[in-house]
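User: Here's a chain of 658 residues. Predict its fold as tokens.
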Amino acid sequence: MGSSSTVTQDTIRFGEGFEVDPRALELRYIGRALKLERIPLQVLLILIEHKGELVTREEIAEKIWGKDAFLDTDNSINGAIRKIRQVLKDDSQEPRYVQTLSGRGYRFIAPVLDVELQTPSPAGPESALPQEAEPATTPVKPISEEWRGKADAAPPAAAFRPWRRFRWFAFLVSCCAIGITAWIGWTHFYGAGAAHPIRSIAVLPLQNLSGDPAQEYFSDGMTDELITELSRIQSLKVISHTSVMEYKGTRKHLPQIARELGVDGILEGSVIRENDQVRVTVQLLDGPNDRHIWSESYERPLHGILNLQKEVAETVARQIRITLTPEQQVRLNAKRTVDPEAYENYLRGRYFLSTQFTMEQPLLQAKSYFEQSIHKDPGFAPAYSGLADAYLYLALFHAVPEQAGFQSAREALHKALQLDDSIGEAHDTLGVIGWRRDWDWEAAEREFDRAIALAPSYPCAHEDRAEFLAFLGRRPEALAEMTRINQIDFGPGAAMTEAGIYIQLRDYRNLLEASKRGVASNPNEWLEHYNLGIAYQGAGKLPEAISEYRKAVELSNGDQDTRASLAHALAAVGNRAEAEKILRDLDRRSKNSYVSPYILATIYAGLGEKDKAFQYLEKAYDERSLDISWHLKADLRIDNLRSDPRFQDLARRVQLPQ
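Assistant: Prediction complete.
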């Protein structure tokens, strides 16, 4: 980089009507302030300071963050350059302002006029009328000097009378120009033959600009909470958290991301956390066209973070002209605070719950964080909802006794809804309890419907409802729900739900296809291999089923359901010795920790010991085992029991759907 003096002028003019104030960090166009965040403005000033010269990415990073910055400066600089181009309406392919030198850096190529603003001479405003600028190749005197020269000449007042008459005409022309510009902007985004109105949105992972990698959980958690808040808005499709996390640190262009996610709008931004202060900068973009719509920066104390999230959601709805229901308006306007430490623990709990919900140890960590959050702030309703989910999954995967787990989940939900009845996630969990524990199909469906009404884009509610509808035998409705899921969730949850639907419908051909896709996209998830094993066994391919069951046992650290399926398949191919060994191991384990009696019943059924199988099925019924409501209707492991009158009596008492 060549030598150049630091920019110290009050105002710097460049291009066709742009000016930037380095001291105020403000960019203006024909006197009107434009929204550009601090980092992009600093990058713009660095490029202007070294106009015409190559500025490397390393030099930009060092000037802004210092030599030893511990953050993703590449993505930060990419984002800054993109935002500069959006505001300046600059084309990266045919630039007028910022030129990219691939693999090297950037160069500011527009003419720049440094200006020290001074009060014009007393000769009057008319004497200060700017003259036509000289060509860019000719040295240009500061405008203040031109003003002084014209003031010294002191021409007769009569010389300016035509200008006075012309000013009104110029004023009218300017008004028309502004109106036309506004009309063009409106029709571009909302008019006939223009870009589609924004009715779907993706919140890209917020960048952690705190300089501390330990704060990643905070920026990811903020992303998740913004998605949750936006997912409550009717008529707005919001892409799930797991889907957008695939784009963390991506170098893909916004139009490509918008196309892949099937959205009209993209919300992106950054988070800076310093002690108990949070600064969040967000901008809304027309994704397919990569055009800026709105941006804003918010700085709040951490205890006001809930209000910040609601404010962003409400502003986004207003910017894209989504009409909020009265219930949504009341919720967004309600002011709530939260203890900063409680909020941090809540985000940590949600992190473990959303990323590793099928493993015992992460679920126990999530449970602990939610309990700590509640201890710090007993009035924070989302923490109770999160705790209920942790207990629910611990019970579903047999990590805690089912009765104790569901009772704790129910108590946490009661407290959450007592504090805030509008939490859609809590109603979804109530639906699962109504289905899996209470065997109350009407109550379950009512809660699932309520959850979706409160949070239309909350994927878990749609996923749970889809599997429930399949359990009821309502195939068209279940598949229609799956179609809706595929519009908002591209993550592993959607793949597992599709498999769950086909398991309940005993559609092994489609289950095989869905599970193969699931394993291909998420090869280290044990549940995907387990579902694939069921598909192979249902298709009569027992060697392949045994291979997948073994993989599921390994990845899950010995989940009892997967071990039971392995034992059942081994017995079916004549390997009775290994099947009986698994049965003995599980029976021994039941002396010290919880083992579902239903699981033991399936192994006895596979070994042909029907009396023992029914003995354990009755025990499962007495315990109101969760496995009864999930497995009894469709589980192929107990097919040899279905013609027995004892099974038909059990199905009648459970009121099992036909």
